[in-house]
Amino acid sequence: MAGAARRKTSCAWIWGGDGRLTNDVVNTYSVNTMSSPNSSPFPARLKQARLINGLSLRELADKIGGAVSYAALSKYEHGVMQPSSGVLIALSHALSQSPDFFFRPFRLELTGVRFRKKSSLGALAEKAFLERARDHFERYQEVEELVGDVRRFKAPFAGESVDTEEAAEDLANRLRAQWRLGVDPLPNVQELLEENGIKVYELQTDDRQFDGLKADTEMSPVVVIASWLKGNLPRMRLTEVHELAHIVLPLADGISESEEEKLANRFAGAFLLPADTFRSAFGKHRHQLGIGELIEMKRTFGASIMAIMKRAEQLGLVSPAIFKRFCIHANQHQWRSLGEPGEEQCVHKEASGRFRRLVLRAVAEDVISVSAGAEHLGVGLQDLRKELKTVIA
User: Of 52, 77, 105, at which residue does a domain stop?
Assistant: First the structure.
């Protein structure tokens, strides 16, 4: 807490981020495994660590070499039994967590969790991603409070409601004005979100069934983005802005999921490709376009060619017939599976270093130990010590 004494602690059709239509399923979850004040966090922490690793109880029993049975593990998770010190060490090794992790009180609840996923993403994978995210944001919140640098999010359109695409575009323009962004292309969406109180976690995964999710916490909204999107920065950026839309848009009563997605898509396009700047770059009433021109716009705006053409159709700069012919061309050349032209020229940086900076600051100011800092950052203790030697006198 900012003023507290500091302590040392060890099915809707969706226009996808790449401009394509996907039969994605949007699910909403609420996650609450907060322990009561007088109960041990161990049962819930054990389950969390198991889910993070994507293991069933039987698979965990196999992984620890039969040190305890499946039935005993089930009793641990239900709070009926406590493990011996030897079993705890075995669990720590098997689940890649320190023993302290299992007794750390829960500090954060995720509510309104919304996955954007394809139907083949299984329930176990969903839970693993969710628990990994919750662990990260718990650590993030704790470090923020310890160094006294808590950044809160303020809903920009409280008391309003939106139910048309034109209104969603207007709110995108107003948010740019509130955040003093002007009308230039956005250099780094992740950093922008974090500067404005929305925590972002880039979850390391190669599972292409997962793009991202948004959720709420007591302190701020959070966004999780799949790391594999680094290989497609335009899609990553539009996905991030799409999740921003779900956070800030004040939806009118009775809006369906498919309508909400249309509003979020329009907001994302307007926020990433502001109308006046886009018109100036694209030109009015175009009938012919060269691929080199589109690649240059892709480089400038950090948006896919498909997203650029969709935005041009939205603003009436190309006719629906021209946009349809363009989509046919893209399909014939397998842009969705093989990639668009000009991928190597999209050089925008998408990363946020705020959590890392806070952890390094906490270590430098002796608020947390070096070993706790290494655990928070997921790096080796010796590696962090070497890095600290270069910045601490």
Answer: 105
